[in-house]
Amino acid sequence: MRELWEKEFSCPFCGNKFKKKMVFFDAIKIKSRDIDLKPNFEGVNPYLYEVVTCPKCYFSAFDKDFESIKIKGEETEKRLNEFLENARKKVELGEEGTHIEAIKRYVLSGTIYSLLNQRKKAAISYLKIAWLFREMGRSEDEKRYLERALREFENHYKYDNYEESDEPMILFYLGVLNQLLGKRKEAAKWYEILIRKYDGASMYAKVGRERWLELRKS
After folding, report:
1. How far apart are the C-alpha atoms of 69 and 85, rounded to whole Å?
2. β-pairing, 4-10 with 17-23?
3. Taking a C-beta distance cutoff of 8 angstroms, is the pair 6, 19 a contact?
4. By the 8 A CB rule, do 109 and 144 touch?
5. Rounded distance between C-alpha atoms, residue 23 and residue 53, angstroms
6. How many CA atoms lie within 13 A of 184 on its CB side?
7. What pLDDT digit, counting tens, does each position of 123-140 carry?
8. Looking at residue 82, what is its pLDDT?
């Protein structure tokens, strides 16, 4: 089965047109999940190809919203331009398809989403960096990015207007990231909020209840 195909993108920041490898949906096979719902794939890992990075200016975002991102305000554009100029000097991008190359791109997307005040997507970028480091056996780097993901999820929950449908996912990750970082009391608090609000109505609440029970037993 073919795993990869090429798609053309147009950069929303500099206008450059370029092609990028994408993973066929049918090639993605999940064999198991970790405590934080990290998928373990059989065969190709789509996270190695998820971030689209413009090879000219380094603007980066998830493939699903790369071309639709709106950059509002002169100050935001200025900050983005400064960040990207610095990134082009410091980051050397190679052929995608490896963990290290994917991590470089997720670091770019995480910072860009933060600059655009899209905290949920910044959190997801950092979470996926942690997952890639987990697959590489680099536990200290994994922990560092779990902490960054947690901070972004916390700020997203406190300060942003998010879709109600996103709340179970946010509450779950506030619980499970605290649990992974050894903050049991804080983890239990978020699991209890998740269960109280969404028990029986969300997959995240179902898994959150399992994690909460595991916490109580251990």
Report:
1. 19
2. antiparallel
3. yes
4. no
5. 15
6. 6
7. 999 999 999 999 999 999
8. 98
With a CB cutoff of 8 Å and minimum separation 6, the contacts of 88 are 57, 58
The whole-angstrom separation of Cα 14 and Cα 90 is 19
Q: What is the dihedral of CA 35, 44, 120, 192, to 10 degrees?
A: -20
CA distance 48 to 149: 18
Q: In terms of DSSP H, where are the helices of 31-183?
A: 74-90, 99-115, 119-136, 139-159, 167-180
Q: What is the distance of C-alpha 109 from the center of its chain?
A: 9
The span from the CA of 166 to the CA of 178, in Å, is 19
- Eight-state DSSP code of residue 109: H
Question: 18-67: per-residue pLDDT in tens?
Answer: 999 999 999 999 999 999 999 999 999 999 999 999 999 999 999 999 99
